């Protein structure tokens, strides 16, 4: 299988101004387009600059961590204002951008009929240093209802408990879900825990009337569909 390459671009310099011009986020947007930028780079562009005591990439990193913990939906401007060095104006700008993105994403009823379309939605988590367990919620036509980060850390029975996985799909009246989690190592082979968790969640979904269609294991470079590879038991 040929997978789309989504390569994250890191920011290793203390200040954006210290970076070679061609590696700065704004310049890279012109050369590779917005889709080629990492989440960190996109946030640096929105923020424009850091504070007197914190460089912009530090602020962007903490914002990403907060978004992962709180989920994009439900993140309030007051949450962002708790970040040291992020003033009310920039906090409001970030919150507005997240809400606008949510409206465009979930307002178009994107079709999710194959693993590649799911990967396209979650691939920006591929450069995270911790495993993110994600639930993609679908309606009866397999159109996107929402996407939630259920847990951050190793995927195991505790962090991927059915109670947490199915809470929002039940509330949103989803008829099907797709599971996905990133492997920071880049190895896309499912572990024993991955298979056990998937089997457990499929059984729970069957009882609830919510079908688990697939489980994608992905990295910054590609993905593996457990369904396509006969790893649904």
Please explain how this structure is put together.
The chain is of the alpha+beta class. It folds into two domains: 16-107; 115-225, Cytidine Deaminase, domain 2, CATH 3.40.140.10. The protein contains eight helices and five strands, in the order ααααααββαβαββ. α2 packs across α3 (56-70) and α7 (162-171) packs across α8 (192-208). The chain is globular, with a radius of gyration of 18 Å.
Please write out the topology:
Elements: H1 25-32, H2 39-47, H3 56-70, H4 77-80, H5 88-107, H6 115-122, E1 132-138, E2 144-152, H7 162-171, E3 176-182, H8 192-208, E4 211-218, E5 223-225
Parallel strand pairs: 3-4
Antiparallel strand pairs: 1-2, 1-3, 4-5
Helix pairs in contact: 2-3, 7-8
Query: In the CATH hierarchy, what is the architecture of the largest domain at level 2?
Result: 3-Layer(aba) Sandwich
Principal-axis shape equals globular
Task: Summarize the main sheet.
Answer: 5 strands, mixed
Number of E-state strands: 5
Characteristic terms for this protein:
single chain; 233 residues; alpha+beta; Cytidine Deaminase, domain 2; 2 domains; disordered N terminus
Summarize this structure briefly:
The protein is 39% helix and 15% strand.
């Amino acid at each position: 299988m040929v997978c789309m390459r989504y390569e994250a671009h890191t920011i290793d310099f203390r200040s954006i101004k210290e970076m070679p011009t061609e590696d700065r986020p704004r310049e890279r947007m012109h050369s590779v387009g917005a889709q080629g930028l990492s989440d960190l780079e996109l946030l640096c562009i929105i923020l424009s600059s850091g504070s007197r005591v914190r460089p912009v990439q530090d602020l962007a990193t903490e914002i990403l961590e907060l978004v992962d913990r709180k989920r994009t939906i439900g993140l309030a401007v007051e949450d962002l204002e708790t970040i040291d060095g992020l003033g009310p104006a920039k906090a409001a700008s970030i919150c507005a951008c997240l809400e606008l993105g949510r409206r465009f994403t979930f307002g178009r009823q994107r079709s999710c009929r194959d693993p590649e379309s799911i990967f396209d939605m979650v691939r920006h988590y591929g450069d995270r240093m911790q495993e993110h367990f994600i639930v993609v919620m679908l309606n009866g036509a397999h159109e996107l209802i929402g996407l939630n980060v259920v847990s951050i850390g190793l995927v195991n029975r505790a962090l991927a408990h059915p109670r947490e996985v199915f809470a929002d799909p039940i509330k949103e009246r989803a008829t099907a879900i797709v599971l996905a989690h990133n492997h920071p190592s880049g190895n896309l082979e499912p572990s024993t825990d991955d298979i056990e968790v998937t089997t457990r969640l499929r059984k729970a979904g069957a009882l609830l009337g919510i079908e688990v269609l697939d489980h994608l294991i992905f990295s910054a470079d590609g993905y593996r569909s457990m369904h396509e590879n006969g790893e649904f038991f």
